[in-house]
Amino acid sequence: MQNPFEEHLRVWNTKPLLRAIYASFFLKVIALMDLKIPGRVLELGAGVGNLKAHLPQAITSDLSPAPWVDLVGDACELPFPDASLSHLVLLDVFHHLEAPNAFFREARRVLTRTGRVILFEPYLSWSSFPVYTLLHHEPVAWRKPINSADVAPRPRGYYAAQGNATRLFFRGELGRWPPGWKVFHAQVFSSFAHILSGGFSRPSFYPIRCLGALQRCDEKLSRWPRLFGGRCLIGLTPQLNGAD
């Protein structure tokens, strides 16, 4: 039986445009980290494990075994001791967590007291909403209730809701959320360079030589996130003694 990530790995190896775009994403994620914090870095839902090219010390994990994944694990039941990790990195993974509170409860357990959770997610704006709704296979679930339970449901089934990060961190649909955590960074940026690249499932709409120009255009359009936003980067750290 073919591993579900083998096709992604094939596309990754044959599509330099996609590798260049994700390199810029990885650098944004790494810039939000503090590598002086003691503990290991864990990437959840690592897929084909591409972050390691930029952060070799990271541990990669996923729900499915693969030669390039260091360990198989569930984001809500991590096989690590208390206070043993410095960072949890989730790139396009948060919107697959059916009970986000259950994840943050587990993250609080495994992170050191100054550890960080870094999320890189879709952002739904006026321009990106139709793209994620019509051209992406995962549901947006814009009006579907978000599970606020502290325990993840069993059995673990497939779940996706691309709108969850936008709804929770930028629209505040659950109020000041997540409880016990401080959001120290919340950035939205335009991502037409990525959208027009076709991602992992579609052909590119432009050659790699045009990437720089599109990225400069994205940088300018990012000034109006509600109109042109397509991606978001969120950093959280546990609150200490209930302080902000």
Shape: globular
Order of helices and strands: HHEEEEHEHHEHHHE
Per CATH, the superfamily is Vaccinia Virus protein VP39
Secondary-structure class: alpha/beta
Description:
The longest helix has 16 residues, at 16-31. It is built from eight helices and seven strands. It is globular. The mean pLDDT is 92. The protein has a seven-stranded mixed β-sheet, with helices on both faces. It has helices at residues 6-14, 16-31, 100-110, 128-134, 164-170, 192-195, 211-221, 225-228; strands at residues 40-44, 59-62, 71-72, 85-91, 111-122, 181-190, 229-238. The chain is α/β, with parallel strands linked by helices and 244 residues long. The chain has a single domain, classed as Vaccinia Virus protein VP39 (Rossmann fold, 3-Layer(aba) Sandwich), CATH 3.40.50. Strand 4, helix 3 (100-110) and strand 5 form a beta-alpha-beta unit.
Strands, helices and their partners?
Elements: H1 6-14, H2 16-31, E1 40-44, E2 59-62, E3 71-72, E4 85-91, H3 100-110, E5 111-122, H4 128-134, H5 164-170, E6 181-190, H6 192-195, H7 211-221, H8 225-228, E7 229-238
Parallel strand pairs: 1-2, 1-4, 2-3, 4-5
Antiparallel strand pairs: 5-7, 6-7
